[in-house]
Amino acid sequence: MTSSTQTAMPDSLMADxxxxxxxxxxxxxxxxxKTFGDNMVVQPLDLDIRQNEFFSILGPSGCGKTTLMxxxxxxxxxxxxxxxxxxxxxxGLPTRKRDLNMLFQSYALFPHLTVFENVAFELRVRREPxxxxxxxxxxxxxxxxxxxxGERKTDQLSGGQRQRVAxxxxxxxxxxxxxxxxxxGALDQQLRKExxxxxxxxxxxxxITFIYVTHDQEEALSMSDRIAVMxxxxxxxxxxxxxxxxxxxxxxxxxxxGSCNIIPAISAGPGNAPTVAGxxxxxAVEVGAAEPVGSHVSVAVRPERMSVSASAPATGWSTTGTxxxxxxxxxxxxxxxxxxxxxxxxxxxxxxxxGPELGALRTGDSIFVSWAEKDARVLAE
Amino acid sequence: MVxxxxxxxxxxxxxxxxxxxxxxxxxxxxxxxxxxxxVLLLAVWPMVLVGRNSFATSDxxxxxxxxxxxxxxxxxxxxxxxxxxxxxxxxAAINTVLCLIIGYIVSNYIVAQSPQRQSLLLLLLIVxxxxxxxxxxxxWITLLGNGGPILWFAHLxxxxxxxxxxxxxxxMLALIYAFLPxxxxxxxxxxxGIDPSLKEAATDLGCGxxxxxxxxxxxxxxxxxxxxxxxxxxxxxxxxxxxxxxGGGKELLVGNLIVTLYTEFRNQPMGAALSMVLLVLMxxxxxxxxxxxxxxxxxx
Lengths: 381, 300
Description:
The complex is a heterodimer. By secondary structure, chain A is α+β, with helices and mostly antiparallel strands. Chain A contains ten helices and 21 strands. The two termini of chain A are 18 Å apart. By secondary structure, chain B is mostly helical. Chain B has a single domain, classed as MetI-like fold.
């Protein structure tokens, strides 16, 4: 495995940005770039989004994900590159002629229209037959479980209901693609969880490609078929939620999705265990481009994949650290540990699995830390 | 006439406060007195006098002699006056429609600009108000008249153009010029409150430029458009300087007729009667505007 640029995706992951042979992707981006002044907010990128896929673009605010989405809708013109929808180019085509709809963050419901009129809006603009409109709008309202609220004004609705109306309006004309711009942002925690399940159900029911833009990793993990992690205008990794979580390609992906211990280390070259200052060699899987001997790398280990014990485990690799904090969180204990000369890690132990030995440890005591090779990954900085 | 109309037009667009302000002690009326007195003395009392005079009789020299008669009102049914009234209403309607169209386009342009640019453009609209209305009307004579820049430029291009003053065109141009800012402000205020994502949503749902405006932006700007219509239509009826200076005084508006009745014909009761008719027309249009707004709010 080789890579031409240092920070780009490893080839194995880059391959995921293109669909397999024979299938026409719902959306295909080729060399898409966006520059505002001197600021390149979207670096040249390629991406295929499959048909009927729930695809999330996940990244912190300012990473370029909204700009990327707005280029697909046609609200922004790419500085370079081309966009295909269902196999045909939409470059230069205005938004209204693209077979897609958007769910706006603010919902953008028309305040002078009723719920029914809002949902019927596109069908009326496109001059569909009247009797079709009534039936299709009713179907869409039933889909979002607002069947009997058609005559309400939008300001008589709760936040969650407004969102459902916006969704019904976006899917009523059965576009090939619906883009959702952080649609759950304005809802309270309880409603968000409900809507996550609902959105996923609706996407399956209507069979439309959903492109979901969010900064919330939990939302992305719980709903997506695939996730693209975006940072500083680049796609760092594309994969299923499991792949993204279990096999992060870069340090950023590892720490942005869930929590992750990042332990500084020195590469010993391909096939050799990296060295952590004060500990020595640690087990870890080398991924992507092999880093040259002596270069600075990180070893990434999820907290729940680390095990701790008061005495050395009978088998396998382990090292000792110093317990710096032990915090009780109800369902689990959170241990902070100083490892080697300059690494701080933390790990969690379910409360039910805390033995008397471990429970007796106080801060400052030595603690044994171990992990399996498959659970630790060597990542370039 | 023009100023009272503009003042009475305002409450139609202002939302009433929900709660009545509580008067803390017995001295509050002291604070209200100056305002109340000036309104009573300078607006209400003259209007009462005009109203009284419109039913009075006068002697040969135009002095009001008292009495009570409907003669002055009946005299207004003379075709000459009816014609002027009709003409005024027509001109006011045309001016209103043109000001609304141009005002809508201008507002739509302004709201699309950056906030700093918006303030600058609005300031540019206000600046002419710092100059006297009469002076600005004279400026139009210079602009359109013989030896003015427009004729000079037309001749330079070889277009044979007669001096535009006096003409109907000049009157119309000056009326639009005079009332455009008053049309722009209410429409701009309405448009500024429209969430920009609504425009994008309309585009996303298949609307072109025309549909976006017809289905979303214009309906949402209705309060401003109604306000602008009132602020343009009503005061146009009372204008008298523009037709005299730019129209050569040939086609008169109601405002001119009132001035002529008072000063040239020295027929005070008839001038007063016509003023009252104009006042009623203005109140009527304000009432219609208010009803339209109310109906819209109820359906919203």
